[in-house]
Design goal:
Structural class: alpha+beta
Bound molecules: 6-O-phosphono-alpha-D-fructofuranose
Number of helices: 7
Distance between the termini: 60 Å
Mean pLDDT: 92
Protein name: Fructose-1,6-bisphosphatase
Cofactor: Mg(2+)
Strand content: 15-25%
Helix content: 25-40%
Number of strands: 15
Order of helices and strands: HHEEHEEEEEEEEEHEHEHEEH
Largest sheet: 8 strands, mixed
Family: Belongs to the FBPase class 1 family.
Strand order of the largest sheet: 4-3-5-6-7-8-9-10
Catalytic activity: beta-D-fructose 1,6-bisphosphate + H2O = beta-D-fructose 6-phosphate + phosphate
GO molecular function: fructose 1,6-bisphosphate 1-phosphatase activity; metal ion binding
Length: about 325
């Protein structure tokens, strides 16, 4: 027949947020407004990443960011887009960005603090690897006028977190503390559409580990042994684990959320506190994994979300994935 299936009742991110807002007691609609400003930033960044290959935005911008990494033009553009979107939202008071040495305090009466890595994994951009924006949201502390105290807090106090991965399409994975929901950008509509409702991590013992084995000689002996053991035939399956490592946290975590397995970036003798940043890489990913029925711990087996950063660019070792996989690590270090 010449008829074609049209879903005339799609759930956009805006509609989804409004529906969840109605369920949250005393919701003022402010978080809804903030999430709409966030989604604008994601659409604008996605648009620029798409164009990057065409107008050759990729390539060194000359400057270097607060943590000394060589900065790519898209990093600069992503950071500016994000800062302007948060400033324009009218309800963000404090902003921490991986690209900014110090936190930014906006004028106005905003009630939220946002932490973000505007383009995480950007060193892979030239290779066409999926990169992403990672973000977390805190409500300002009671009576706060906006200061560093609003963000040097445990991840358990975040009210929202997630990432948008810019791959074949843009995928937004979002939690506001009631589970994880995934949205895919329909660029012809300019809307994020709900495509992964109430996402739960695949915990069917999918034996994948994801770590940069180039750091093996820098790991402590227990961690070296842990990964050596994963490479042997496992009791449950008679097979060794598969190794999958992209080197872009958003892409590696996205695969872990959808397929299961274990992702890790341990601290080592080269990076004593680990490489990934607590506020805008570890916390948002840990929040998502826990809300999807997974787990996220530090090298010593503590819950990532209970860390309290001392400085806005502090780092931590991190192990995240399905409970069954993270528990194997906890057993290996005698925490279970
Ligand atoms: P390595 C990308 O630069 C990043 O910050 C994360 O996205 C990624 O997980 C990690 O660093 C990769 O680091 O040392 O394995 O190249």
């Amino acid at each position: 027949s010449d008829e074609f299936q049209v879903d005339t009742d799609i759930i956009t991110l805006t509609r989804f947020i409004l529906s969840t807002q109605q369920k949250v007691q005393h919701a003022t609609g402010e978080l809804t407004l903030l999430l709409n400003s966030l989604q604008f930033a994601f659409k604008f960044i996605a648009n620029n990443i798409r164009k990057a290959e065409l107008v050759n935005l990729i390539g060194l911008a000359g400057a270097s960011n607060s943590t000394g990494d060589a900065q790519k033009k898209l990093d600069v553009i992503g950071d500016e887009i994000f800062i302007n979107a948060m400033k324009g939202s009218g309800n963000v008071k404090v902003l921490v960005s991986e690209e900014q040495e110090d936190l930014i305090v906006f004028e106005g009466e905003g009630n939220y603090a946002v932490v973000c890595d505007p383009i995480d994994g950007s060193s892979n951009l030239d290779a066409g690897v999926s990169v992403g924006t990672i973000f977390g949201v805190y409500k300002l502390l009671p009576g706060s006028k906006g200061s560093i105290k609003d963000v040097l807090r445990p991840g358990t106090e975040m009210v929202a977190a997630g990432y948008t991965m810019y791959g074949a399409s843009a995928h937004l994975m979002l939690t506001t503390g009631q589970g994880v929901n995934g949205f895919t950008l329909d660029s012809s509509l300019g809307e994020f559409i709900l495509t992964h409702p109430n996402l739960k991590i695949n915990d069917n013992n999918k034996q994948i580990f994801s770590v940069n084995e180039g750091n093996t000689i820098y790991w402590d002996a227990k961690i070296q042994k842990f990964f050596q053991d994963l490479k042997k035939p496992q009791i449950e399956t008679g097979l060794p684990y598969s190794a999958r490592y992209i080197g872009s946290m958003v892409a590696d975590v996205h695969r872990t959320l959808l397929y299961g397995g274990l992702f890790s970036y341990p601290a080592d003798s080269k990076s004593k506190n680990g490489k990934l940043r607590i506020l805008y890489e570890c916390f948002p990913m840990a929040f998502l994994l826990e809300q999807a029925g997974g787990k996220a711990v530090t090298d010593s087996g503590e819950r990532i979300l209970e860390l309290i950063p001392k400085a806005i660019h502090d780092r931590s070792g991190i192990w995240l994935g399905s409970i069954i996989e993270v528990d194997k690590y906890l057993k290996a270090i005698g925490k279970l």
